[in-house]
Amino acid sequence: MTAFFLFIYNVLFAVFLAILIPFGLIFSSNFRRNFFYKTKERFAIWDFKRSLLKKTLWFHCSSIGEVRAVEPLLYAFKDDKTQIVLTVATKTAREYAKNLKSIDFIALFPLDLYPLMSKAFEIINPVLFFPIETELWPSMFYSAHAKKIKIVGVNGRISEKTFKTYNKMSFFWSGFISFIDAVLARSEDDAKRYEALSKGKVKTFVTGNIKYDRDFSVGASRADFNLTEDDIVWTAGSIREDEIAAIIEVYKTLIKTYPNIKMFIAPRHIDKIENIKTALDRAKVPFTLFSSQLHKGIGFAAAAVVDVFGKLQDIYSISDLCFIGGSLIDKGGQNPIEAAAYSKPVLFGKYMDNFKMEAKLLTDSGGAIVVKNAADLAKISLNLLSDKQKLKDMGAKALHTVKSQKGSIQLTIEKIKEFL
Question: Is the pLDDT of residue 293 over 80?
Answer without folding.
Answer: no
